[in-house]
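Could you join me in thinking about how sequence relates to backbone shape in a protein? To get us started, please write out a protein record for me. Would you write everything just below, so we can both look at the same thing?
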Amino acid sequence: MKEERRRFKLKDIPSLIKDTYNAWMANDPWRLSAVIAYYAVLSLPALLVIIINVVGSIWGVEIVQGQLTEEFSVALGSEAASSIESIISETQNKNKNLISTLIGIGTLLFGATGVFYQLKISLNQIWKVEPDPDAKIWKLITDRARSFAFILVIGFLLLISFILTAAISVLNGYIKQMFPDLVIYIAYILDMTISIGVISVLFALMFKYLPDAYIRWKTVWKGAILTSVLFVIGKTLLGLYFAEAEPGSTYGAAGTIVLILLWVSYSCLILFFGAQFTYIYAQRYGQGIKPSSIAKKANSRS
C-alpha cells in the first residue's frame, strides 16, 4: 500500500529516526559495509594513483600526495599513512614497457571503479531497486563509466578542498593579527564547515547518480547533509579511537590493512544510514524513489 505523504514537521524527527534505524538494521548494514571495505582495500592503490595524477596535474603531484598522506595520518595514524604512501610509490613506478603500462592502466581503471560499483549495488538494495535483466551489457558499461566519473568528482572536490584550505591558511594569518585569542576556534569552525560542505556535495551526487533510481534534489540534499554531519563526527571519533586504542598494532605487518577495513566499514555504516534516511524521507514527504530506465522495483523480502 502506498504511504500517505505529508509535510515534514519537527515533531516527526523521533519517528523518522526510529523508522530509519529499523529499516537500516533490516538491510544488514554490517554485511554491506564489510563488502565495501573489502573492495576498498583492493581498489585503494588504483584509486589513489588516479586521483593523485588527476589533481596533481593542476596542483602538483608532490603537494597532493603530501596532503593525502597528512589526511591518512589524521584518520589512521602516521604508521598507516607511511604504509599507504609506500603503496602509492610502488604503483607509480615508471620503469615499465608499453605493454605493461597499458595493462597497468586497464587494471587501474577496473580496480578503482570496483568500490563504487559495489556501493551502487548496496544503495540499490537499500532503495529497493534492482537492475533490469534485459539491459546487462549496456548496464555494465554505464555502471563502470559512472563509477569512473565519481573518481573524477572526488578528484575535483579534493582540488576545491585544497584550494579552500590554502585560502584559510592565508586568512588565519590575518585573523591571528586581529584576533589572536580566537584564531584556533575560528580555524576549527571554518575547517569543519568546509569538510561538511565538500562531503555533502559528494554524498548528494552519490545519492542522485550512483544508484539505478530517480530521486528529487530536494530530498537528496536533506539526506546528504545529515550523512555528511554524521560522517564528519564519525571520522573525528574514529581518529581518536585509532590514536588511543591502536587496534592495528595487534596485527603487525597487516595492521594497515586492518585499519583501512575498520575505517571504511564504520564509515559505510554511516553512509548507509544516511541513504536509508533519504529513502524513508522520500517515501514520507517526497515523491518516493523510482527505478531508472534500466532498472525495476526490487521484489519485497517480507
